[in-house]
């Protein structure tokens, strides 16, 4: 009888404890520390050193990474050593790589004053990329757009230091057009020339000259226009197949050249490209599903053109439509949000959309503040602060202000993804395992539930992607767990801004 009473009391205590735990939120209001944007910025830039390909410099801070990809370009008689692996694989895809460069440069152009001591690391991250783009564009009317055969690469789980899969070099040229990747490459080179104009004018001149050279073939010589999804699509699709068409990249590249040259020399191409886009979409209709990504530059182009003080009212109208499509209280909102408040735009690596769109919100919001403007959505009006606040909510969500109380940046906060979909991070480093690991030798590290042995600090995982706030820290689930260079690029600018004004 006594034993029964003891068991009953223990059960009651356990029930009370479980109820208390159920009733108590995982992080009570006010208990979550405020975001440390400066720390996150430092980590966000450090991530790029973990993505480096090529001969690593003595200043390399991610020391568990070693030299890799040292024969890239040899098959074509060119030097394509360097650059970045785009995500968790070991291929250098030129299209997302160039977009990374353009947006990283834009982050620096807009927010260099807010970067403080991290500005030098931002310059280093960008220069590692543009040095590679210069190698890829050495020959006239030819752009090398990929290093590595993607299908064999994706069939292996192997450190980049051990790569023994084929490393063919793919190019677009006068017989194999690739206007989207060439346009994005020109944009990256032109945008980067602005970044380096004051610190290294000779290098800036080289970048701008090369941007003009690349643009000459795709804008002036229209016979070279066409999509690389058709000319070399068997090697770039389905990985980075262009879906939105190449006209947006032609506008984007021309706009950056206008900004870099402080001229309107490319205005004719911009107007023509916008007309082409308008025949394919319904940009004038409120509620249009605006995008900004490595595939679609529409929203970015209009905001960039607006910043350049163009007088065409369409730029302002389209920029407002973009904001109206995102603002939660807008009657023209076309954007879904998770219950916890995260933008939901993509079923694969959703945070790429979140960081890119949030970056544009801040850039546009700052512009509106400078001209005392507002956003008008039908009968509703919103101050610039509404755009900034929305972007801040997205940044804070990524850094841990979410239902899971989890940071989606590796190495930031007390709780973050431990099993990102990333070969180099998940396989023991050369320091830990000096022996060569062949194609399938990394498979046990891919399937294990153990955390990654190498911390890829600053990497953003893909984040929640199904419209809920759920996240599975599971390496094979690449849709949620894979990082990418183009997710971090706009986040650099956001973190710089909020480190000063957050």
Number of helices: 19
Note the gap between the termini.
63 Å
- Assign the CATH topology: Glycosyltransferase
Characterize the largest beta sheet: strand count, sense, and whether it forms a barrel.
3 strands, antiparallel
Overall mean pLDDT stands at 91
CA-based gyration radius: 24 Å
Q: What's the overall geometry?
A: globular
Describe the strand arrangement of the main beta sheet, using strand numbers: 1-2-3
The quaternary organization reads as: single chain
Catalytic activity: Endohydrolysis of (1->4)-beta-D-glucosidic linkages in cellulose, lichenin and cereal beta-D-glucans
Protein name: Endoglucanase
Family: Belongs to the glycosyl hydrolase 9 (cellulase E) family.
GO molecular function, one term: cellulase activity
Give a verbal description of the structure:
The chain is mainly alpha-helical and about 500 residues long. The chain has a single domain, classed as Alpha/alpha barrel (Glycosyltransferase), CATH 1.50.10. Helix content is about 50%, strand content about 5%. It has a three-stranded antiparallel sheet with strand order 1-2-3. Strands 4-5 form a two-stranded antiparallel sheet. β6 (about 375) and β7 (about 380) form a beta hairpin. α6 (about 180-195) runs antiparallel to α7 (about 200-220) and α14 packs antiparallel against α15 (about 385-400). Mean pLDDT is about 90; it is low at about 1-30. This is Endoglucanase. It catalyses: Endohydrolysis of (1->4)-beta-D-glucosidic linkages in cellulose, lichenin and cereal beta-D-glucans. Keywords: Carbohydrate metabolism, Cellulose degradation, Glycosidase, Hydrolase, Polysaccharide degradation, Signal.
């Amino acid at each position: 009888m006594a034993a029964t009473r003891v068991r009953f009391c223990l059960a009651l205590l356990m029930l009370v404890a479980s109820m208390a735990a159920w009733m108590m939120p995982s992080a009570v209001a006010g208990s979550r520390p405020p975001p440390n944007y400066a720390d996150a910025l430092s980590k966000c830039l450090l991530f790029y050193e973990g993505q480096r390909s090529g001969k690593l410099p003595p200043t390399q801070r991610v020391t568990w990474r070693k030299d890799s990809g040292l024969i890239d370009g040899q098959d074509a008689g060119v030097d394509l050593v360097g650059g970045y692996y785009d995500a968790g694989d070991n291929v250098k895809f030129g299209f997302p790589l160039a977009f990374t460069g353009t947006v990283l440069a834009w982050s620096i152009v807009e927010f260099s004053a807010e970067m403080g001591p991290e500005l030098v690391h931002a310059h280093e991250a960008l220069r590692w990329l543009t040095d590679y783009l210069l190698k890829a564009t050495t020959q006239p009317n030819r752009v090398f757009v990929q290093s590595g055969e993607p299908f064999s690469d994706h069939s292996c789980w192997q450190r980049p230091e051990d790569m023994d899969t084929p490393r063919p070099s793919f190019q677009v040229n006068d017989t194999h057009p690739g206007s989207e990747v060439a346009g994005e490459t020109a944009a990256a080179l032109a945008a980067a020339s602005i970044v380096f104009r004051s610190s290294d004018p000779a290098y800036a001149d080289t970048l701008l000259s090369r941007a003009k050279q690349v643009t000459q073939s795709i804008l002036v010589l229209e016979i070279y226009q066409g999509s690389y999804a058709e000319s070399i699509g068997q090697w770039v699709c389905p990985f980075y197949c262009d879906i939105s068409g190449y006209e947006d990249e032609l506008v984007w590249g021309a706009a950056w050249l206008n900004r870099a040259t402080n001229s309107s020399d490319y205005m004719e191409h911009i107007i023509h490209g916008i007309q082409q886009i308008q025949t394919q979409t319904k940009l004038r209709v409120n509620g249009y599903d605006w995008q900004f990504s490595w595939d679609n530059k529409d929203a970015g182009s209009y905001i960039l053109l607006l910043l350049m003080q163009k007088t065409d009212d369409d730029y302002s109208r389209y920029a407002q439509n973009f904001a109206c499509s995102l603002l939660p209280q807008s009657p023209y909102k076309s954007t879904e949000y998770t219950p916890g408040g995260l933008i939901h735009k993509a079923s694969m690596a959703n945070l790429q959309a979140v960081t890119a769109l949030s970056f544009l919100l801040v850039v546009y919001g700052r512009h509106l503040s400078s001209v005392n403007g507002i956003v008008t959505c039908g009968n509703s009006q919103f101050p610039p602060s509404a755009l900034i606040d929305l972007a801040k909510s997205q940044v804070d969500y990524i850094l841990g202000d979410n239902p899971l109380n989890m940071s989606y940046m590796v190495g930031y906060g007390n709780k973050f993804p431990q099993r990102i979909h990333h070969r180099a991070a998940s396989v023991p480093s050369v320091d830990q395992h000096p022996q060569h690991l062949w194609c399938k030798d990394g498979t046990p590290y891919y399937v294990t539930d153990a955390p990654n042995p190498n911390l890829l600090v600053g990497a953003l995982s893909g984040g929640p992607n199904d419209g809920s706030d759920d996240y599975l820290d599971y390496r094979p689930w690449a849709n949620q767990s894979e990082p990418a260079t183009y997710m971090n690029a706009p986040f650099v600018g956001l973190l710089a801004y909020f480190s000063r004004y957050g």
